Amino acid sequence: MIAGTRRRAVVRVVLAALVVIGLALAPPADARLQPTGGDSLPRLEMGNFLPAIREQLQQAYAAAEARPADPEAAGALGMALDAYEQYDAAALCYRRAQQLDSQSFRWRFYLGWVQAAQGRHEDAALTLAAALRMHPGYVPAQLRLAASLLAIGKWQESGEVYRAVSAAHPENADAQYGAGRVSAARGDVTAAAAAYLRAVELFPDYGAAHYALALVYRTLGDDERYRQQFRLYEQNRTSVPPLDDPLRGAVARLNMGPVAHIRRGADLERAGRIDEAIQEQQEALRVDARAVQAHINLIALHGRLGQYESAVEHYRAALDIDRNQADLHYNYGVLLLKQRRPQEAEAAFRAALEINPYYADAHVNLGVLAEHQGRLNDAVRHFEDAVANRPNDRAAHFHLGRLRANQAEYDEAITHFLKTLTPEDESTPRYLYALAATYARAGNSAEALRYARTAREQAAARGQAELLASIERDFPALAQR
Protein backbone atom coordinates (compact mmCIF):
# COMPACT_ATOMS: atom_id res chain seq x y z
CA MET A 1 0.00 0.00 0.00
CA ILE A 2 2.83 2.39 0.88
CA ALA A 3 4.72 1.54 -2.33
CA GLY A 4 1.59 2.25 -4.38
CA THR A 5 1.14 5.62 -2.66
CA ARG A 6 4.77 6.50 -3.40
CA ARG A 7 4.36 5.58 -7.06
CA ARG A 8 1.26 7.76 -7.38
CA ALA A 9 3.09 10.62 -5.68
CA VAL A 10 6.04 10.46 -8.06
CA VAL A 11 3.67 10.38 -11.04
CA ARG A 12 1.92 13.54 -9.75
CA VAL A 13 5.22 15.37 -9.23
CA VAL A 14 6.61 14.33 -12.60
CA LEU A 15 3.44 15.34 -14.42
CA ALA A 16 3.45 18.71 -12.65
CA ALA A 17 7.06 19.24 -13.68
CA LEU A 18 6.17 18.35 -17.27
CA VAL A 19 3.64 21.18 -17.41
CA VAL A 20 6.31 23.65 -16.29
CA ILE A 21 8.79 22.23 -18.78
CA GLY A 22 6.32 22.49 -21.62
CA LEU A 23 5.75 26.17 -20.86
CA ALA A 24 9.44 26.96 -20.37
CA LEU A 25 10.98 25.37 -23.45
CA ALA A 26 10.52 26.06 -27.11
CA PRO A 27 9.80 23.15 -29.46
CA PRO A 28 12.82 21.58 -31.21
CA ALA A 29 13.76 23.30 -34.43
CA ASP A 30 16.31 20.89 -35.86
CA ALA A 31 14.93 20.07 -39.29
CA ARG A 32 17.49 17.32 -39.77
CA LEU A 33 15.55 15.21 -37.30
CA GLN A 34 12.15 15.87 -38.84
CA PRO A 35 11.89 13.75 -42.01
CA THR A 36 8.84 14.52 -44.11
CA GLY A 37 9.06 11.96 -46.88
CA GLY A 38 8.75 8.20 -46.73
CA ASP A 39 12.23 7.86 -48.24
CA SER A 40 14.01 9.87 -45.49
CA LEU A 41 16.63 7.50 -44.12
CA PRO A 42 20.08 8.49 -42.89
CA ARG A 43 23.03 8.12 -45.21
CA LEU A 44 25.41 5.64 -43.62
CA GLU A 45 29.16 5.29 -44.06
CA MET A 46 29.82 1.59 -43.46
CA GLY A 47 33.56 1.50 -44.12
CA ASN A 48 34.66 2.02 -40.51
CA PHE A 49 32.59 -0.84 -39.04
CA LEU A 50 33.83 -4.35 -38.38
CA PRO A 51 32.42 -6.85 -40.92
CA ALA A 52 29.85 -8.44 -38.59
CA ILE A 53 28.50 -5.03 -37.56
CA ARG A 54 28.45 -3.80 -41.17
CA GLU A 55 26.31 -6.77 -42.17
CA GLN A 56 23.92 -6.18 -39.26
CA LEU A 57 23.41 -2.53 -40.16
CA GLN A 58 23.00 -3.26 -43.84
CA GLN A 59 20.24 -5.76 -43.08
CA ALA A 60 18.42 -3.29 -40.81
CA TYR A 61 18.75 -0.54 -43.41
CA ALA A 62 17.41 -2.77 -46.17
CA ALA A 63 14.37 -3.67 -44.02
CA ALA A 64 13.61 0.00 -43.32
CA GLU A 65 13.98 0.83 -47.00
CA ALA A 66 11.69 -2.02 -48.03
CA ARG A 67 8.97 -1.04 -45.52
CA PRO A 68 8.89 2.79 -45.52
CA ALA A 69 5.53 2.98 -43.70
CA ASP A 70 6.49 0.56 -40.92
CA PRO A 71 7.50 2.27 -37.65
CA GLU A 72 9.02 -0.97 -36.36
CA ALA A 73 11.43 -1.14 -39.31
CA ALA A 74 12.49 2.51 -38.89
CA GLY A 75 12.79 2.10 -35.13
CA ALA A 76 14.76 -1.13 -35.44
CA LEU A 77 17.29 0.62 -37.67
CA GLY A 78 17.47 3.43 -35.11
CA MET A 79 18.12 0.95 -32.32
CA ALA A 80 20.91 -0.75 -34.27
CA LEU A 81 22.56 2.61 -34.96
CA ASP A 82 22.02 3.68 -31.35
CA ALA A 83 23.77 0.52 -30.15
CA TYR A 84 26.95 1.72 -31.89
CA GLU A 85 26.55 5.33 -30.72
CA GLN A 86 25.61 6.62 -34.18
CA TYR A 87 23.32 9.09 -32.50
CA ASP A 88 22.66 11.53 -35.37
CA ALA A 89 21.46 8.76 -37.66
CA ALA A 90 19.62 6.98 -34.84
CA ALA A 91 17.73 10.16 -33.93
CA LEU A 92 16.56 10.54 -37.52
CA CYS A 93 15.21 6.97 -37.50
CA TYR A 94 13.53 7.35 -34.11
CA ARG A 95 11.79 10.54 -35.19
CA ARG A 96 10.57 8.79 -38.31
CA ALA A 97 9.25 5.88 -36.23
CA GLN A 98 7.58 8.34 -33.86
CA GLN A 99 5.87 10.12 -36.78
CA LEU A 100 4.62 6.80 -38.11
CA ASP A 101 3.36 5.75 -34.64
CA SER A 102 2.61 8.86 -32.62
CA GLN A 103 1.22 6.85 -29.67
CA SER A 104 4.44 4.94 -29.03
CA PHE A 105 6.23 5.71 -25.76
CA ARG A 106 9.19 3.64 -26.91
CA TRP A 107 10.22 5.75 -29.89
CA ARG A 108 9.85 9.01 -27.95
CA PHE A 109 11.96 7.67 -25.09
CA TYR A 110 14.66 6.46 -27.44
CA LEU A 111 14.68 9.79 -29.28
CA GLY A 112 14.95 11.75 -26.04
CA TRP A 113 17.73 9.49 -24.82
CA VAL A 114 19.88 10.00 -27.92
CA GLN A 115 19.18 13.74 -27.95
CA ALA A 116 20.57 13.87 -24.41
CA ALA A 117 23.56 11.80 -25.53
CA GLN A 118 24.16 14.38 -28.28
CA GLY A 119 24.10 17.18 -25.72
CA ARG A 120 20.84 18.57 -27.12
CA HIS A 121 19.28 18.81 -23.70
CA GLU A 122 16.49 21.27 -24.45
CA ASP A 123 15.19 18.98 -27.19
CA ALA A 124 15.73 15.97 -24.94
CA ALA A 125 13.75 17.55 -22.09
CA LEU A 126 10.79 18.22 -24.38
CA THR A 127 10.90 14.78 -25.96
CA LEU A 128 11.23 12.95 -22.65
CA ALA A 129 8.49 15.10 -21.10
CA ALA A 130 6.18 14.07 -23.94
CA ALA A 131 7.14 10.42 -23.46
CA LEU A 132 6.47 10.59 -19.71
CA ARG A 133 2.98 11.92 -20.30
CA MET A 134 2.35 8.53 -21.88
CA HIS A 135 4.20 6.49 -19.25
CA PRO A 136 4.84 8.65 -16.13
CA GLY A 137 6.31 5.85 -14.04
CA TYR A 138 9.26 4.85 -16.21
CA VAL A 139 12.19 5.63 -13.91
CA PRO A 140 14.96 5.62 -16.57
CA ALA A 141 13.05 8.30 -18.50
CA GLN A 142 12.56 10.32 -15.30
CA LEU A 143 16.28 10.19 -14.52
CA ARG A 144 17.25 11.13 -18.07
CA LEU A 145 14.78 14.02 -18.00
CA ALA A 146 16.10 15.28 -14.64
CA ALA A 147 19.68 15.18 -15.96
CA SER A 148 18.75 17.17 -19.07
CA LEU A 149 16.87 19.74 -16.99
CA LEU A 150 19.94 20.14 -14.80
CA ALA A 151 22.12 20.57 -17.89
CA ILE A 152 20.01 23.51 -19.13
CA GLY A 153 19.86 25.21 -15.73
CA LYS A 154 16.32 24.17 -14.77
CA TRP A 155 17.50 23.34 -11.25
CA GLN A 156 14.15 23.49 -9.51
CA GLU A 157 12.39 21.22 -12.00
CA SER A 158 15.34 18.83 -12.06
CA GLY A 159 15.46 18.65 -8.27
CA GLU A 160 11.72 18.00 -8.07
CA VAL A 161 12.02 15.02 -10.41
CA TYR A 162 15.03 13.60 -8.54
CA ARG A 163 13.26 14.00 -5.19
CA ALA A 164 10.14 12.35 -6.54
CA VAL A 165 12.13 9.37 -7.82
CA SER A 166 13.90 9.07 -4.45
CA ALA A 167 10.57 9.17 -2.61
CA ALA A 168 9.16 6.36 -4.72
CA HIS A 169 12.44 4.41 -4.96
CA PRO A 170 14.59 5.19 -1.91
CA GLU A 171 17.07 2.52 -3.02
CA ASN A 172 17.92 4.44 -6.22
CA ALA A 173 21.49 5.73 -5.98
CA ASP A 174 21.24 7.62 -9.28
CA ALA A 175 18.48 9.83 -7.92
CA GLN A 176 20.57 10.68 -4.84
CA TYR A 177 23.57 11.47 -7.01
CA GLY A 178 21.43 13.67 -9.25
CA ALA A 179 20.01 15.51 -6.24
CA GLY A 180 23.57 16.12 -5.10
CA ARG A 181 24.45 17.61 -8.48
CA VAL A 182 21.46 19.95 -8.24
CA SER A 183 22.54 21.10 -4.77
CA ALA A 184 26.12 21.58 -5.98
CA ALA A 185 24.89 23.68 -8.92
CA ARG A 186 23.05 25.87 -6.43
CA GLY A 187 26.17 26.24 -4.30
CA ASP A 188 24.79 24.24 -1.35
CA VAL A 189 27.82 22.03 -0.71
CA THR A 190 26.45 20.67 2.58
CA ALA A 191 23.30 19.31 0.92
CA ALA A 192 25.39 18.07 -2.00
CA ALA A 193 27.71 16.14 0.32
CA ALA A 194 24.75 14.54 2.13
CA ALA A 195 23.20 13.40 -1.15
CA TYR A 196 26.47 12.06 -2.54
CA LEU A 197 27.14 10.18 0.69
CA ARG A 198 23.72 8.59 0.47
CA ALA A 199 24.46 7.60 -3.14
CA VAL A 200 27.68 5.79 -2.19
CA GLU A 201 25.95 4.14 0.78
CA LEU A 202 23.42 2.72 -1.66
CA PHE A 203 26.10 1.76 -4.20
CA PRO A 204 29.60 1.79 -2.66
CA ASP A 205 31.43 1.50 -6.00
CA TYR A 206 29.74 4.53 -7.59
CA GLY A 207 32.74 6.20 -9.25
CA ALA A 208 31.10 9.48 -10.28
CA ALA A 209 29.61 9.98 -6.81
CA HIS A 210 33.01 9.41 -5.17
CA TYR A 211 34.54 11.96 -7.54
CA ALA A 212 31.79 14.48 -6.74
CA LEU A 213 32.31 13.90 -3.02
CA ALA A 214 36.05 14.44 -3.46
CA LEU A 215 35.39 17.82 -5.08
CA VAL A 216 33.01 18.79 -2.26
CA TYR A 217 35.56 17.89 0.41
CA ARG A 218 38.25 19.82 -1.46
CA THR A 219 35.95 22.86 -1.48
CA LEU A 220 35.41 22.42 2.27
CA GLY A 221 39.16 22.15 2.87
CA ASP A 222 38.96 18.55 4.18
CA ASP A 223 42.11 17.18 2.55
CA GLU A 224 41.98 13.76 4.20
CA ARG A 225 38.45 13.00 3.03
CA TYR A 226 39.25 14.48 -0.37
CA ARG A 227 42.13 12.05 -0.83
CA GLN A 228 40.07 9.12 0.43
CA GLN A 229 37.20 9.83 -1.95
CA PHE A 230 39.54 10.45 -4.86
CA ARG A 231 41.22 7.09 -4.25
CA LEU A 232 37.79 5.44 -4.33
CA TYR A 233 37.04 7.23 -7.57
CA GLU A 234 40.33 5.97 -9.03
CA GLN A 235 39.31 2.43 -8.09
CA ASN A 236 35.82 2.73 -9.60
CA ARG A 237 36.12 5.23 -12.47
CA THR A 238 33.56 3.58 -14.73
CA SER A 239 31.40 1.83 -12.14
CA VAL A 240 27.74 2.90 -12.07
CA PRO A 241 24.68 1.47 -10.32
CA PRO A 242 22.68 -1.09 -12.29
CA LEU A 243 19.47 0.36 -13.70
CA ASP A 244 16.40 -1.67 -14.54
CA ASP A 245 15.84 -0.31 -18.05
CA PRO A 246 14.36 -2.91 -20.40
CA LEU A 247 14.24 -0.48 -23.31
CA ARG A 248 17.90 0.50 -23.18
CA GLY A 249 18.72 -3.13 -22.47
CA ALA A 250 17.11 -4.06 -25.81
CA VAL A 251 19.40 -1.58 -27.54
CA ALA A 252 22.49 -2.86 -25.72
CA ARG A 253 21.76 -6.43 -26.79
CA LEU A 254 21.98 -5.39 -30.43
CA ASN A 255 25.62 -4.42 -30.03
CA MET A 256 27.73 -7.08 -31.71
CA GLY A 257 30.99 -5.28 -31.02
CA PRO A 258 33.70 -6.76 -28.79
CA VAL A 259 32.90 -4.56 -25.77
CA ALA A 260 29.30 -5.79 -25.64
CA HIS A 261 30.45 -9.42 -25.66
CA ILE A 262 33.01 -8.66 -22.97
CA ARG A 263 30.34 -7.10 -20.75
CA ARG A 264 27.91 -9.97 -21.29
CA GLY A 265 30.71 -12.39 -20.46
CA ALA A 266 31.39 -10.55 -17.23
CA ASP A 267 27.71 -10.74 -16.30
CA LEU A 268 27.68 -14.48 -16.99
CA GLU A 269 30.79 -14.97 -14.86
CA ARG A 270 29.14 -13.18 -11.93
CA ALA A 271 26.18 -15.55 -12.37
CA GLY A 272 28.54 -18.54 -12.19
CA ARG A 273 27.97 -19.55 -15.83
CA ILE A 274 31.65 -19.92 -16.64
CA ASP A 275 31.40 -21.90 -19.89
CA GLU A 276 28.99 -19.34 -21.36
CA ALA A 277 31.21 -16.52 -20.13
CA ILE A 278 34.14 -18.05 -22.00
CA GLN A 279 32.04 -18.25 -25.15
CA GLU A 280 31.18 -14.54 -24.94
CA GLN A 281 34.83 -13.55 -24.47
CA GLN A 282 35.82 -15.76 -27.40
CA GLU A 283 33.10 -14.15 -29.49
CA ALA A 284 34.60 -10.75 -28.65
CA LEU A 285 37.91 -11.99 -30.05
CA ARG A 286 36.19 -13.33 -33.16
CA VAL A 287 34.82 -9.84 -33.80
CA ASP A 288 38.11 -8.13 -32.93
CA ALA A 289 41.25 -10.21 -32.44
CA ARG A 290 42.94 -7.28 -30.62
CA ALA A 291 40.29 -7.00 -27.88
CA VAL A 292 42.85 -7.19 -25.08
CA GLN A 293 40.27 -7.18 -22.26
CA ALA A 294 38.78 -10.42 -23.61
CA HIS A 295 42.20 -12.09 -23.39
CA ILE A 296 42.62 -10.73 -19.84
CA ASN A 297 39.22 -12.10 -18.80
CA LEU A 298 39.95 -15.48 -20.38
CA ILE A 299 43.08 -15.83 -18.23
CA ALA A 300 40.84 -15.76 -15.15
CA LEU A 301 38.04 -17.87 -16.63
CA HIS A 302 40.27 -20.68 -17.87
CA GLY A 303 42.17 -20.51 -14.58
CA ARG A 304 38.94 -21.08 -12.65
CA LEU A 305 38.37 -24.27 -14.64
CA GLY A 306 41.97 -25.45 -14.18
CA GLN A 307 42.68 -24.98 -17.91
CA TYR A 308 46.10 -23.50 -17.32
CA GLU A 309 47.57 -23.93 -20.80
CA SER A 310 44.69 -22.03 -22.36
CA ALA A 311 45.01 -19.31 -19.72
CA VAL A 312 48.73 -18.89 -20.46
CA GLU A 313 48.01 -18.64 -24.20
CA HIS A 314 45.69 -15.70 -23.55
CA TYR A 315 48.24 -14.12 -21.20
CA ARG A 316 50.87 -14.18 -23.94
CA ALA A 317 48.41 -12.89 -26.53
CA ALA A 318 47.46 -10.00 -24.25
CA LEU A 319 51.14 -9.15 -23.65
CA ASP A 320 51.65 -8.86 -27.39
CA ILE A 321 48.72 -6.40 -27.67
CA ASP A 322 49.18 -4.19 -24.60
CA ARG A 323 51.30 -5.16 -21.61
CA ASN A 324 50.43 -1.92 -19.79
CA GLN A 325 47.24 -3.40 -18.27
CA ALA A 326 47.17 -3.92 -14.50
CA ASP A 327 44.42 -6.57 -14.72
CA LEU A 328 46.58 -8.59 -17.11
CA HIS A 329 49.38 -9.00 -14.58
CA TYR A 330 46.99 -9.42 -11.65
CA ASN A 331 45.02 -12.23 -13.35
CA TYR A 332 48.27 -13.94 -14.31
CA GLY A 333 49.43 -13.67 -10.70
CA VAL A 334 46.26 -15.39 -9.49
CA LEU A 335 46.83 -18.11 -12.10
CA LEU A 336 50.37 -18.63 -10.82
CA LEU A 337 49.08 -18.93 -7.24
CA LYS A 338 46.70 -21.67 -8.38
CA GLN A 339 49.76 -23.45 -9.83
CA ARG A 340 51.64 -23.04 -6.52
CA ARG A 341 54.27 -20.67 -7.97
CA PRO A 342 54.30 -17.95 -5.28
CA GLN A 343 57.52 -16.18 -6.26
CA GLU A 344 56.39 -15.66 -9.85
CA ALA A 345 52.94 -14.65 -8.59
CA GLU A 346 54.51 -12.01 -6.36
CA ALA A 347 56.38 -10.57 -9.36
CA ALA A 348 53.11 -10.41 -11.33
CA PHE A 349 51.26 -8.62 -8.52
CA ARG A 350 54.10 -6.11 -8.23
CA ALA A 351 53.89 -5.51 -11.97
CA ALA A 352 50.18 -4.78 -11.54
CA LEU A 353 50.96 -2.24 -8.82
CA GLU A 354 53.56 -0.51 -10.97
CA ILE A 355 50.77 0.23 -13.45
CA ASN A 356 48.05 0.93 -10.86
CA PRO A 357 49.37 1.69 -7.34
CA TYR A 358 45.76 1.76 -6.04
CA TYR A 359 45.05 -1.89 -6.96
CA ALA A 360 43.59 -3.16 -3.66
CA ASP A 361 43.36 -6.83 -4.68
CA ALA A 362 47.05 -6.88 -5.63
CA HIS A 363 47.94 -5.41 -2.23
CA VAL A 364 45.84 -8.07 -0.47
CA ASN A 365 47.53 -10.93 -2.33
CA LEU A 366 50.99 -9.48 -1.73
CA GLY A 367 50.04 -9.20 1.95
CA VAL A 368 49.06 -12.85 2.07
CA LEU A 369 52.31 -13.88 0.39
CA ALA A 370 54.35 -11.71 2.77
CA GLU A 371 52.58 -13.22 5.79
CA HIS A 372 53.30 -16.75 4.58
CA GLN A 373 56.97 -15.80 4.27
CA GLY A 374 57.00 -14.43 7.80
CA ARG A 375 57.36 -10.78 6.70
CA LEU A 376 54.59 -9.55 8.97
CA ASN A 377 55.41 -5.85 8.72
CA ASP A 378 55.23 -6.04 4.93
CA ALA A 379 51.98 -7.95 5.19
CA VAL A 380 50.43 -5.29 7.42
CA ARG A 381 51.61 -2.54 5.08
CA HIS A 382 49.98 -4.18 2.06
CA PHE A 383 46.71 -4.86 3.89
CA GLU A 384 46.62 -1.27 5.14
CA ASP A 385 47.29 0.02 1.62
CA ALA A 386 44.39 -2.10 0.40
CA VAL A 387 42.07 -0.58 3.02
CA ALA A 388 43.31 2.92 2.24
CA ASN A 389 42.50 2.45 -1.42
CA ARG A 390 39.26 0.52 -0.85
CA PRO A 391 37.90 1.09 2.67
CA ASN A 392 35.23 -1.60 2.33
CA ASP A 393 37.70 -4.35 1.33
CA ARG A 394 36.55 -7.22 3.51
CA ALA A 395 39.52 -9.51 2.83
CA ALA A 396 42.02 -6.83 3.85
CA HIS A 397 40.09 -6.08 7.05
CA PHE A 398 39.90 -9.81 7.82
CA HIS A 399 43.65 -10.31 7.45
CA LEU A 400 44.41 -7.19 9.48
CA GLY A 401 42.02 -8.44 12.15
CA ARG A 402 43.82 -11.78 12.38
CA LEU A 403 47.24 -10.19 12.59
CA ARG A 404 46.15 -7.72 15.26
CA ALA A 405 44.45 -10.49 17.26
CA ASN A 406 47.64 -12.56 17.14
CA GLN A 407 49.47 -9.53 18.56
CA ALA A 408 46.86 -9.29 21.37
CA GLU A 409 45.65 -5.96 19.97
CA TYR A 410 42.06 -7.07 20.41
CA ASP A 411 40.23 -3.75 20.15
CA GLU A 412 41.81 -2.98 16.78
CA ALA A 413 41.22 -6.55 15.62
CA ILE A 414 37.53 -6.33 16.53
CA THR A 415 37.21 -3.03 14.67
CA HIS A 416 38.52 -4.71 11.51
CA PHE A 417 36.38 -7.83 11.89
CA LEU A 418 33.22 -5.76 12.35
CA LYS A 419 33.88 -4.26 8.90
CA THR A 420 33.77 -7.70 7.28
CA LEU A 421 30.18 -8.55 8.21
CA THR A 422 28.37 -6.92 5.30
CA PRO A 423 27.32 -7.75 2.69
CA GLU A 424 26.42 -11.28 3.75
CA ASP A 425 27.79 -14.09 1.58
CA GLU A 426 29.56 -17.44 1.88
CA SER A 427 32.47 -15.83 3.76
CA THR A 428 30.32 -14.20 6.45
CA PRO A 429 30.10 -17.21 8.82
CA ARG A 430 33.92 -17.45 8.85
CA TYR A 431 34.23 -13.74 9.58
CA LEU A 432 31.66 -14.00 12.38
CA TYR A 433 33.57 -16.93 13.86
CA ALA A 434 36.82 -14.93 13.84
CA LEU A 435 35.06 -12.01 15.52
CA ALA A 436 33.57 -14.30 18.18
CA ALA A 437 36.95 -15.88 18.87
CA THR A 438 38.56 -12.46 19.26
CA TYR A 439 35.89 -11.31 21.70
CA ALA A 440 36.54 -14.51 23.69
CA ARG A 441 40.29 -13.84 23.77
CA ALA A 442 39.56 -10.27 24.88
CA GLY A 443 37.51 -11.62 27.81
CA ASN A 444 34.11 -10.48 26.54
CA SER A 445 32.19 -13.76 26.77
CA ALA A 446 28.75 -12.24 26.16
CA GLU A 447 29.71 -10.76 22.78
CA ALA A 448 31.73 -13.88 21.95
CA LEU A 449 28.69 -16.12 22.44
CA ARG A 450 26.43 -13.71 20.56
CA TYR A 451 28.56 -13.68 17.43
CA ALA A 452 29.42 -17.38 17.73
CA ARG A 453 25.70 -18.16 17.81
CA THR A 454 25.12 -16.12 14.65
CA ALA A 455 28.14 -17.76 12.99
CA ARG A 456 26.78 -21.21 13.83
CA GLU A 457 23.34 -20.36 12.45
CA GLN A 458 24.75 -19.03 9.21
CA ALA A 459 27.24 -21.87 8.77
CA ALA A 460 24.42 -24.39 9.28
CA ALA A 461 22.15 -22.56 6.82
CA ARG A 462 24.90 -22.56 4.19
CA GLY A 463 25.84 -26.20 4.74
CA GLN A 464 29.37 -25.39 5.92
CA ALA A 465 29.78 -28.54 7.99
CA GLU A 466 33.51 -28.23 8.73
CA LEU A 467 33.17 -24.65 9.96
CA LEU A 468 30.09 -25.60 11.99
CA ALA A 469 32.06 -28.33 13.73
CA SER A 470 34.86 -25.87 14.56
CA ILE A 471 32.42 -23.37 16.05
CA GLU A 472 30.75 -25.98 18.23
CA ARG A 473 34.13 -27.34 19.33
CA ASP A 474 35.44 -23.91 20.33
CA PHE A 475 32.14 -22.78 21.88
CA PRO A 476 30.76 -25.90 23.59
CA ALA A 477 28.09 -23.86 25.36
CA LEU A 478 26.37 -23.43 22.00
CA ALA A 479 26.30 -27.14 21.25
CA GLN A 480 24.47 -27.75 24.56
CA ARG A 481 21.63 -25.39 23.71
TrEMBL record:
Q: Which UniProt keywords apply?
A: Repeat, TPR repeat
Among SUPFAM superfamilies, the record links this protein to: TPR-like (SSF48452)
Record flagged with keyword Repeat: yes
Q: What Gene3D superfamilies does the annotation carry? A: Tetratricopeptide repeat domain
Origin, by domain of life?
Bacteria
Keyword flag Signal: no
Q: What is this protein called?
A: TPR repeat-containing protein YrrB
Species for this entry: Luteitalea pratensis
Q: What high-level taxonomic lineage is stated for the organism?
A: Bacteria, Pseudomonadati, Acidobacteriota, Vicinamibacteria, Vicinamibacterales
The primary gene name is yrrB_2
